[in-house]
Task: inverse folding
């Protein structure tokens, strides 16, 4: 089974991206997907894409229009607030299954 790579992004790469990372991994594993997640700060996105080659970017901060255009970007604030987490996890899982 393929392992999908998720890049979680926040302003500092420490706080909300870590929370989003843990919830994202937990909820996608529950949906039967193999997941590998790393976190970074918004200014590191382009370099992480080149090295890590994520399947999807889950971001909790606003990214510039030109940032990460080669990878599907999904707003991940629900993993931080707890509101709509299941719907967000379903959206990410559906997307990843579609690119498998």
Result:
């Amino acid at each position: 089974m393929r392992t999908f790579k998720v890049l979680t992004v926040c302003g500092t790469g420490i706080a909300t991206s870590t929370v989003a990372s843990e919830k994202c991994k937990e909820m996608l594993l529950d949906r039967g997907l193999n997941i590998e997640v790393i976190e970074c700060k918004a200014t590191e996105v382009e370099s992480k894409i080149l090295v890590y080659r994520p399947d999807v970017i889950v971001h909790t901060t606003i990214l510039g229009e030109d940032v990460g255009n080669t990878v599907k970007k999904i707003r991940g604030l629900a993993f931080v607030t707890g509101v709509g987490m299941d719907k967000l996890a379903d959206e990410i899982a559906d997307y990843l299954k579609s690119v498998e």
